[in-house]
């Protein structure tokens, strides 16, 4: 498994950053801010940013600044701040390309059953974070993990990101966290995507960011290994998932509270 800095015994780790790389300057500013916060709180940190958004509701939605350009931004974040990076891949052909720039390859929830994608990701030798499909039970994620392991890669993480609850809502079943932990892999709670409200008539996904703290606290309370939070300096103008992202100014206070909960349940 990938080595993380600031790793005191039994603390949770954090995957955080913008939904998509909108440019180098914004990514570097966000990374610098989060690195400073996580170092002070001794939270192991992975910078998250998608180099391309392949799953958008509308054809005219922003998808990225160009694959190679965005991947080089992720590489610069890693080299500048000394933190690992994570980004989504969407096809088997992307796995090798992305692996040259990032440390963790993330499998989107909608694609978690795609055998060719999982096997290609596994063969890069990188850590693979598989997001649980909104349509799957937690226990069914064993089979997704098995595909990666059987392809020769034991570096697996699993992420809970909510379960479809009707056409326009998601719900987190916290029983799934300890269930997936029985497989022997770190389990992450994707707080912000769990608060999406998909399939809006406008074609733009909605969200409930006012519940980010509630969902995150509950995840830490049940013993999740890691927390995933998309954050932006100004979510109102973010080019993707602005409706459910955390405003960057609120991150330090939230993480401080989560560290206290973690200490209390030890």
Automatic annotation (TrEMBL):
Q: Name one GO cellular component term.
A: cytoplasm
Q: Which InterPro entries match?
A: Aldolase_TIM, DAHP1/KDSA, KDO8P_synthase
Domain DAHP synthetase I/KDSA, by residue range, is 10-264
EC numbers for this chain:
2.5.1.55
Annotated keywords: Cytoplasm, Transferase
Q: Does the keyword Ribosomal protein apply?
A: no
- GO annotation (BP), single: lipopolysaccharide biosynthetic process
Cite the GO molecular-function annotations of the record.
Answer: 3-deoxy-8-phosphooctulonate synthase activity
Please write the reaction equations for the catalytic activity of this protein.
D-arabinose 5-phosphate + phosphoenolpyruvate + H2O = 3-deoxy-alpha-D-manno-2-octulosonate-8-phosphate + phosphate
User: Does the record carry Transferase as a key word?
Assistant: yes
Identify the metabolic or biological route this protein is part of: Carbohydrate biosynthesis; 3-deoxy-D-manno-octulosonate biosynthesis; 3-deoxy-D-manno-octulosonate from D-ribulose 5-phosphate: step 2/3; Bacterial outer membrane biogenesis; lipopolysaccharide biosynthesis
Location relative to the cell: Cytoplasm
Q: Can you tell me which family this protein belongs to?
A: Belongs to the KdsA family.
PANTHER family assigned: PHOSPHO-2-DEHYDRO-3-DEOXYHEPTONATE ALDOLASE
Q: What is this protein called in UniProt?
A: 3-deoxy-8-phosphooctulonate synthase
Lineage of origin: Bacteria, Pseudomonadati, Bacteroidota, Bacteroidia, Bacteroidales
């Amino acid at each position: 498994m990938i080595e993380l800095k600031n790793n005191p015994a039994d603390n949770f780790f954090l995957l955080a950053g913008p939904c998509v790389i909108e440019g180098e300057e914004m990514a570097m500013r966000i990374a610098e801010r989060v690195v400073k916060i996580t170092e002070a709180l001794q939270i192991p940190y992975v910078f998250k940013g998608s180099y391309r958004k392949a799953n958008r509701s509308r054809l005219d939605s922003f998808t990225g600044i160009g694959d190679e350009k965005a991947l080089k931004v992720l590489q610069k974040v890693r080299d500048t701040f000394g933190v690992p990076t994570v980004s989504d891949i969407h096809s088997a052909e992307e796995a090798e390309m992305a692996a040259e720039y990032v440390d963790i390859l993330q499998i989107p929830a909608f694609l978690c059953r795609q055998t060719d994608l999982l096997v290609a990701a596994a063969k890069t030798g990188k850590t693979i974070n598989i997001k649980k499909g909104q349509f799957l039970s937690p226990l069914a994620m064993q089979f997704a993990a098995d595909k990666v392991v059987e392809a020769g890669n034991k570096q697996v993480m699993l992420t809970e990101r909510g379960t479809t609850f009707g056409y326009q809502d998601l719900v987190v079943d916290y029983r799934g966290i300890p269930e997936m932990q029985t497989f022997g892999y770190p389990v992450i709670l994707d707080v912000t995507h769990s608060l999406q409200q998909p399939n809006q008539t406008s074609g733009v996904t909605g969200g409930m960011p006012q519940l980010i703290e509630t969902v995150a606290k509950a995840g830490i309370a049940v013993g999740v290994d890691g927390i995933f939070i998309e954050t932006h300096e100004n979510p109102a103008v973010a080019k993707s998932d602005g409706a459910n992202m955390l405003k960057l100014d609120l991150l330090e206070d939230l993480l401080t509270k989560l560290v206290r909960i973690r200490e209390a349940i030890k």
